[in-house]
Amino acid sequence: MKVTEVEHHGIAPIPPAEQTSRPRDLFRLAFGGANTFATIILGTLPIAYGLSFRDAVLATTLGVVVGGLVLAPMALFGPRTRTNNAVSSGAHFGVVGRCVGSFLSLLTAITFFAISVWVSGDAVAGAAQRLFGFDGGPVLRGFAYGVIAIATLVVCIYGYRFMLLVNRVAVVLGTAIMLLGVFAYGGSFDPGYAGTGTYALGTFWPTFTLAALTALANPISFGAFLGDWARYIPASFSKRSLLTAPFLAQVATLLPFGFGIATATLVANPADYITGLTAISPLWYAIPLIVVALIGGLSTGTTSLYGTGLDFSSIFPRLSRVRATLLIGTLSVAFIFVGNFVLDMVSSINTFATLIVLCTSPWMVIMMIGFVQRRGYYDVADLQVFNEGRRGGRYWFTRGVNWRAMAAWIPATTLGLLCANTPMIAGPWRDIAGGVDVSLLVTLLTAAVAYPVLVKLFPEPPEVFAPARIPVTTAQPAEA
C-alpha cells in the first residue's frame, strides 16, 4: 500500500503478507507521538505544582520509567492477533466485554487529541504575535485549532503508512529543534531553581507523587493504541525486541519532558506556559517553535485519534474507519473549543489524565496476566466474532463477557478513584497514606491479585488455552 493511498484495513486481521513493519517502526510511532508539545506541557506541570527543578526531574523520570515498564508488554498482542489491542482484549474480557478497551481508547483519544491541538494552536498564535506583533486573540487561536485539527484528521484518514511517514519526520525534526532550545534558553536557565515554595497539594510528598503520576499518564495513554501499529509487525520478531521498542520510546520522551521542565522555570507563570514561553523566546527561535507545534500536534493527534476511529468502526459496523474517525474527531474538536473558551482546559486535562491512569492500568494488567496464562495463544478468527455480527467461539464466555476479568477491573478502578488525591479528583480515602496519592498502587495491586484469584476459583473455559485440547464451538451468526 502506498503512503498516499487511503488505508482500507479496519480491525479485521492484517494479512500476514502485509505485516511488513519492524519494531523500530513501533519505536518511531510511539516516540513520535510523544515527542511533541503535548508532552512538553505535561513536563511543565511539576514546576506549576511548586516543585524544584531537581525534584521535577526525579518525579518525571520515575513516572516515565514505571509507565514504560507497564506499557511495554502491550506490544506483544498485535503481532499475534493481527488486530488492535481493544479487539485483542476480547480474549480476556470477552468479545463483547472488550468494549471496555474501546471506552478507554476513546477517553485517551479525546484527551491527547485535545492537548495536541490546544497547545499547538496556542503556540502558533503566540509565536505569530511574537514575530509580527499581531494579537489575534480568540479568533486567531480558534483558527489555529481548526487548521491543526483538520490536518490531523486528514492524516488519520489516509491511515497507517501516512502516519508512519509523519512520525519519521516528527522524531528527527522535533528532536533537533528541542536540542536547539539549549542555545535559545541556555543562558537564562538555572538548574538550581528551588520552586515556588507553595505545593499544589500542601506538602512535598503528595505533590511529588502527583507529578510522577502526571508523567506516568503519558506512557499509560499508549496502552490502548500500541496494537494499532504492532499489528503490522510479524510475530516472528522476538519478544525482547517488541518489549524494548515501546520502552525505549518512552525513555526517549525524557527529552520533551526535560524541555518542558527546564523552560517552565524561566516563564513568569508556569500555569500559563505557552504565553510565557513565546514571550521569552528569541525571535530566531519563534519559527522553529511553530514547526515543533505543527509537526508535534499532527504526531500526537494522529497516534491517538487513528486508533479510536479504527476501533469504533468495529463497534458500530455501519461506520467505516474513515467515518468513525471523522465522528470522533468532530467530538474532540468540540471538546477543545468548549474546554478552552468555556471551561478550564488545564483542569479538564488533569482530570482526564487521572482517569486514563486509573482506568487503563488495571485493564493492561489483566491483559498481561491473561497473556501469560494463555502462553500467548490467541484464535485470530474468534476474536472477530462480535465485529462480524456473530455469536459463540472460544471467547464468548457468558453472553460475550468474561465476568472474571470484569469483576477484577471494576473494583480495581473504583478503589483507585476512591484513593485518588489530585486537584480535580479527590476520593474519600485520599488521606489513607497521609495525603500521598496511592491510587495507582491500589488499582494495580487489586487487578493483579483479583484476576488470578478469580480464575483460580472459577476456571476459564479450557478451549481458550490451546487449539487442540477441546474442539472449539463454531461461531454462529447473531440472531436478528
UniProtKB/TrEMBL annotation:
One of its GO terms (molecular function) is transmembrane transporter activity. It comes from the Bacteria. The keyword Aminoacyl-tRNA synthetase does not apply. GO terms for cellular component: plasma membrane. InterPro entries: Pur-cyt_permease, Pur-cyt_permease_Fcy2/21/22. The chain crosses the membrane at residues 29-51, 57-78, 99-119, 139-158, 165-185, 205-226, 247-271, 283-303, 324-343, 349-372, 406-426, 432-454. The keyword Transmembrane helix applies. It is a multi-pass membrane protein. Keywords: Membrane, Transmembrane, Transmembrane helix, Transport. It is found in: Membrane. Belongs to the purine-cytosine permease (2.A.39) family. This is Purine-cytosine permease. It comes from Amycolatopsis tolypomycina.
